Amino acid sequence: MLVPCEVAVKCLLPPVRAIMAKELTTKYNLKQTEAAKLLGVSQPAISLYYRKIRGNAIDLEKDPDIIKLIENLAASVAKGAISHKDFISMFCQICRTVRAKGLLCQMHRVFDPAIDFSKCELCTTTDSLKRK
Fold it and tell me: What global pTM score does this model have?
């Protein structure tokens, strides 16, 4: 039985990194090696994200709320104006938002088909958007 955070690591972290990589290289004119260093990944990973070969499990680009959160995180990273704690906090806010919108449920179902998602409200309750 997988918890939502495990599904997020497998299916949400790569698309967020892909969007951030695109932001860092296009909007902030960073080289792929610079973006890779900021995101803690390799330059080839940035290339794969950029070409949409990696990080396409969930399409986040259609949701303006999520894109705004990711753009804010990318801006903070690009400016070097973010602590490790704030980075984690901002990423967790992205994850809570994705979960609250039910976008992670379909991927969770793939990994754990035994869960009855018609009765599961763990991620979609309003409390999942509140900081704890």
Answer: 0.86
Which two tokens mark 4? 């939502």
Tell me the C-alpha distance between 125 and 11, whole Å.
21
**Which residue from 30, 27, 29, 94 is spatially nearest to 67, judged by alpha carbons?**
94
The answer to whether 48 touches 54, Cβ cutoff 8 Å, is yes
Residue 99 in tokens? 């979960």
Q: What is the pLDDT of residues 100-117, one digit of tens each?
A: 888 888 788 888 887 777
**Which residues, other chains included, contact 68 with Cβ-Cβ below 8 Å and sequence gap of 6+?**
none
From residue 12, alpha-carbon distances to 33, 41, 79, 82, 104 in Å are: 22, 15, 24, 21, 8
77-80 CB contacts, 8 Å cutoff, 24+ apart: 77/20, 77/24, 77/38, 77/39, 78/23, 78/24, 78/27, 78/28, 78/30, 78/38
Q: Are 60 and 70 in contact (CB under 8 A)?
A: yes
Q: What is the DSSP letter of 99?
A: H
Confidence label for 31 from pLDDT (cuts 50, 70 and 90): very high
